[in-house]
Amino acid sequence: MKLEERTQIAQQLLEQVLSTQPEYFILEVKVKPFRNGFIVVAFIDTDKGISIEECSQISRQYEQVLENSPAFEQLYRLEVSSPGVDRPLIPRQFLRNTGKKIEVKVNEQEKYLGKLLEATELNFTVEIPASKKKKTPAFQKTFTYTEIQSAKIIL
Fold this sequence. Notes:
The protein is an alpha+beta fold. The protein has 2 domains: about 5-80, GMP Synthetase, Chain A, domain 3 (2-Layer Sandwich); about 90-155, SH3 type barrels (Roll). Helices cover about 25% and strands about 35% of the residues. The chain contains 3 helices and 8 strands; from the N terminus they run αββαβαβββββ. The protein has a 5-stranded antiparallel beta sheet, with no helix packed on it. A 3-stranded mixed beta sheet has the order 1-2-3, covered by helices on one side. β4 (about 100-105) and β5 (about 110-120) form a beta hairpin. The longest helix has 16 residues, at about 5-20. The mean pLDDT is about 95.
C-alpha cells in the first residue's frame, strides 16, 4: 500500500473519531515510514484553541481506531498535536486570531506584515503599518484565502 493511501485512510479514520465531536477539526494528517512501521502525525484544533488534555483524549480514541485498521498493523507511533504558531493558518483559524500580528505570503516576492483586523468565510483584512523605508503610508488590504500562499501568526 502506498504512503498516500495510508495517509488518506488515516485522515478518514480521524474524521470518524471526530464525527461525534464537531468542535474539533483537522488541520493535517501525515503518515511517515519509520523503522518497520509508521508514524501517524495529526494536527487538530477547535475554534477556541485546544489543550494538551484534549489532544491526549483524542489521541487515545484515535489510537484504538488505528490499531483495528489493517493499514496500520505496524503502527509505531502516534502524535496528535495542536498547531504551533509556526504552522500556516487555515481559513477557520483566522477569526480566532483577530487582533494579532500576522505575516501573509502571497508569493515568493510579495509578503505583508500587519495586524489581522477581521475575517469572514471568504476573506480577511490586514492593517499594514506605514513604512519609512519604502515610503508608504499605512493601509488596509483584504485578501481572499485562495489568493495567498500562506499566513501565520507572528509573536
